Amino acid sequence: MKNRNKNLKILKELFWDYKWDSVVEKLDSPFVIAKVLEIGNKEQAKELEKAIGVNKIKDFLEKYENFLSKQSLNFWRLCYVIQSKRTQYDELVIKKAINSFEDAEKEPEILIFKKVRWDTIKNFFIKEFARI
Q: Are 67 and 42 in contact (CB under 8 A)?
């Protein structure tokens, strides 16, 4: 338990305005999950997942969609491969797309007609996914 609390300290900065002990007691509450997924970083989200389990997060994403912004909700649904009620997509295609971004970031810059930064291209596709 002591080691668990030490690992959870990565979340503490997100809850600066609450008593930390009360947050730790209610880690699996919709409020805590929403705050971590909405404003936390990847490491904070992974630490929450380790503490409460992937199924709690998936349940949250299915039941409490109004707790997150549309962008965050779409992003986390893609990460956890949860289908929207309106959209169907193939899990393999999504995993390939995410891996393609990671692979592309490792590649050297290519010559193109118009100078465009990779971040601009990546952000375009991320925004387009969020609209879906």
A: no
In angstroms, the CA 113 to CA 116 distance is 9
Helix axis angle for 30-39 and 42-52, nearest 10°, is: 160
What is the sign of the dihedral through the CA atoms of 49, 47, 67 and 101?
negative
Residue with tokens 């986390």: 76
Maximum alpha-carbon separation in the chain: 57
Name the DSSP letter for residue 66. Answer: G
Structure tokens at 71: 């962008």
Is the CB of residue 93 less than 8 Å from the CB of residue 70? Answer: no
Domain boundaries, the chain: 2-79, 91-131
Query: Residues 58-114: pLDDT tens digits?
Result: 999 989 989 999 888 888 888 887 655 545 555 666 666 666 666 666 766 666 666
DSSP 86: S
Based on C-alpha coordinates, what's the Rg of the chain? 17
pTM of this structure: 0.61
